Amino acid sequence: MEYEDKRVANLWLADELWQLGAIQFGDFSLGTAVHSPVYVNLRLLVSNPAALREAAEVMLEEVRTLQNMRHPRLAYYDLVAGVPFGGLHLATAFSLLSGTPMIYLHPSKDGQGHVIEGTYSSGQTVLIIDDLITGGRSVIQTAARLEAENLIVEDALVLLDRQQGGQMRLKREGINLAAILTLEAVLRYLGTSNKISPEWYHQSLEYLGKPHDTL
Question: Could you tell me if residue 168 is inside a domain?
Answer without folding.
Answer: yes
